[in-house]
Specification:
Order of helices and strands: EHEHEHEHEHEHEEHH
Distance between the termini: 7 Å
Shape: globular
Strand content: 15-25%
Structural class: alpha/beta
CATH architecture: 3-Layer(aba) Sandwich
Helix content: 40-55%
CATH class: Alpha Beta
Radius of gyration: 16 Å
CATH topology: Rossmann fold
Number of strands: 8
């Protein structure tokens, strides 16, 4: 039963969007998924209150540094996957959640400023590896990228992460209107209305590829169990 935490010290990196996309894709594969919304702004919980959330996807909120470990462990009992959307700061709660993760996904946009913030998240994971004496797999996920243009800046940033021994998703979450629409209308990508939102098939294809790579990363590393 893998635990996947999403961590980024920078707002707007796509943390909650990438968490919801992965949760929905896993749920649509028939897996039972629990998302723990540990972001004070509660974006995932607000999404879950709108119509269309998969029945096998549960969202929990109101967690603190005192309760985060118990919440994760309790959610693990009845779920195939637990996804934790963390607050955007290097808090005790973030450190505790990271220590329990089978995979930490670090969303980042493709600018130098965003890459520097992603590097802070990488340092936080490595610090907690030493603190808790556990190996914590992680990978950077580039978000809100262009579907048509591969920029030199992004190529350079990817190279820098690779040279630092940090894994990077091959799939990028491109800038798509349906991703924003999820939080306005609720539900999943496939439940969005094509008359109101354009580009749904392309967004679905992108999200599926992202989820498949996340599962591939989990299967290639020593985790508790991949359903």
């Amino acid at each position: 039963m893998p635990i996947i935490s999403f961590a980024s010290p920078k707002g707007g990196a796509g943390k909650s969007t990438s968490a919801v996309l992965l949760a929905c894709e896993l749920a649509q594969l028939g897996r039972k998924v629990t998302v723990i919304d540990a972001d004070p702004n509660r974006p995932v919980f607000r999404w879950a209150q709108r119509p269309g959330r998969p029945e096998n996807l549960t969202v929990l909120q109101d967690v603190t540094e005192e309760t985060i470990i118990d919440t994760i462990e309790n959610a693990s009992v009845g779920s195939n996957f637990v996804i934790v959307d963390l607050e955007g700061t290097a808090s005790i709660m973030v450190a505790l959640a990271i220590s329990r993760a089978d995979l930490v996904i670090i969303p980042s946009q493709g600018s130098q400023l965003d890459a520097e913030q992603a590097a802070r998240a990488v340092q936080l994971v490595r610090m907690n590896e030493k603190r808790f004496r556990v190996a914590i797999p992680m990978a950077v996920l580039f978000t809100r990228t262009s579907a048509a243009i591969r920029t030199r800046d992004l190529n350079r940033i990817e190279t820098n992460f690779a040279q630092a021994g940090v894994s990077v998703f091959n799939v990028r979450l491109t800038e798509r209107a349906p991703y924003r629409a999820l939080f306005a209308y609720g539900g999943t990508l496939s439940s969005l209305d094509p008359s109101q939102v354009s580009g749904i098939p392309q967004a679905i294809e992108n999200a599926k590829a992202y989820a498949e790579e996340a599962l591939s990363i989990l299967r290639s590393r020593p985790v508790r169990e991949v359903a």
